[in-house]
Amino acid sequence: MNNYLDLKNTKNFSEIDKPANVIKKGGLVLFPTETVYGIGANGLNSDAVKNIFIAKGRKQDNPLILHISSFEMLNLIAKDITDMELKLMNAFWPGPFTIILNKTNIVPDVVTGGLDTVGVRMPSNKIAFELIKQANTPIAAPSANISGKPSGTNVQDIFDELCDKMDFIIDGGNTEVGVESTVVRVIDNVPVILRPGGVTAEDLKRVAGDVKIDKHVLAKLENTEKVLSPGMKYRHYAPNSKCVLVYSDDNQKLTSKIQELVSENKNPLIISSTENISKYDVPHVLNSGSSKRPQEIAQNIFRLLRKVDSYNPDIVIIEGVKEEGIGLAIMNRLIRACEYNYIKM
Ligand code: TXA
Ligand code: MG
Questions:
Q1: pLDDT tens digits, the chain, 345 residues: what are they?
Q2: Which residue out of 64, 99, 109 has the highest number of ligand 1 atoms within 8 Å of its CB and is therefore the one to mutate?
Q3: Are residues 162 and 268 in the same domain?
Q4: Deepest in the core among 3, 134, 190, 258, taking most CB within 10 A?
Q5: What is the CATH classification number for the domain harbouring 97?
Q6: Distance from the CA of 142 to the center of ligand 1, in angstroms?
Q7: CA 79, CA 277: separation in Å to the nearest integer?
Q8: What is the pTM of this model?
Q9: Could you identify the atom of ligand 1 that is nearest to the CA of residue 119?
């Protein structure tokens, strides 16, 4: 295939000019970032960006993040930047951090869903960074998945659902963080987390002194409420199978509750931490990683959510994690995957 570049085990990026040219010409490129894979297009070309929405089946009012490789690109697309915003960008870029800023006129309405703000991120993944640099334009990119499905963290997982819609595919192996970037908007000089991600609330607090977490990060949105981020409104990450999330700080309580659910349901599948796997006597238990290393669970979780339907379970029981550090991002995704079916003890 001449529109496929395998960069899994190489640091030789000399052929990135090919996908960069595809971006320049208005095509769609599947590419890795440190968080999840993205579906990229020239962020300043409305027609190219429209094709992202078609490929994903995404609602027009759900805005895209523009990915940049320099502060020159930032100044092209964003204005009125405050000292706090600059401080955060300097601290967390390049990296899994997206900031909502006032947009300039050059940013097409399709990118922002008609909002006067734009989400901006400078990724640290070398392939992503080089792609943006060589395309020489901000790249609009949502997570690589059909809308509603878990985000892609490796090419195999998303190949079937996306390959015929892409003009070029770059394979960079498994992504490092595994969940998407942290989306922040600074309000009254305080960073407010609209979506938790690779940069944690604790990281933000260390730099900004204070941090707020939007209540919709963990709570269900009521129909009448106005949201700061359109993405909060939509169903996301959910397998077709019915899922339930269970968590307690007391591990004994957690495993007993799951054993109880196992006895009440036929054909259950469990997503369990490595430490608890031997405690469950069911045919299908998937290992999410060590509860002592939530980073490992973040890396695995989207792949596992994609896998569960293949076992055809009557119910998927998922062990939660502590809502701190990267755990907040994991729980934000799992609560949505379970459509708010969450037992917390
Ligand atoms: O890690 C990531 O952020 C990945 C990689 C590819 O960079 N991208 C990603 O994009 O997750 P997406 O489109 O799946 O999620 C972007 C989120 C959505 O929830 C969207 O509503 C929100 O960011 N967002 C984007 N622009 C916004 C804006 N101007 N105001 C408020 N929320 C915004
Ligand atoms: Mg997404």
A1: 569 999 999 988 999 999 999 999 999 999 999 999 999 999 999 999 999 999 999 999 999 999 999 999 999 999 999 999 999 999 999 999 999 999 999 999 999 999 999 999 999 999 999 999 999 999 999 999 999 999 999 999 999 999 999 999 999 999 999 999 999 999 999 999 999 999 999 999 999 999 999 999 999 988 778 889 998 888 788 899 999 999 999 999 999 999 999 999 999 999 999 999 999 999 999 999 999 999 999 999 999 999 999 999 999 999 999 999 999 999 999 999 999 999 999
A2: 64
A3: no
A4: 258
A5: 3.90.870.10
A6: 6
A7: 51
A8: 0.98
A9: 26
CA distance 40 to 169: 10
Whether 185 is covered by a domain: the verdict is no
Residue 189 C-alpha to ligand 1 middle, in angstroms? 21
- Ligand 1 center to 116 CA (angstroms): 15
For residue 122, give the ligand nearest its CA: 1
Question: Cα of 7 to ligand 1 centre, how many Å?
Answer: 25
On the CB side of 308, CA atoms within 13 Å amount to 33
Distance 142 CA to ligand 2 centre (A): 6
Please tell me the distance from the alpha carbon of residue 197 to that of residue 326, in angstroms, as a whole number: 7
- Long-range contacts, stretch 132-137, CB < 8 angstroms, 24+ apart: 132/67, 132/68, 132/69, 132/73, 133/69, 133/70, 134/16, 134/17, 134/20, 135/20, 135/21, 135/23, 135/24, 135/42, 136/20, 136/24, 137/23, 137/24, 137/42, 137/43, 137/44, 137/45, 137/73
Residue ranges lining ligand 1, Cβ < 6 Å: 33, 35-36, 38, 62-65, 96, 98, 100, 112, 115, 117-119, 121, 141-143, 180-181, 183, 194-195, 229-231
Q: Which domain holds residue 49?
A: 4-176
Q: Which atom of ligand 1 is nearest to the CA of 228?
A: 31
Among protein residues, the one with the nearest Cα to ligand 1's atom 24 is 63
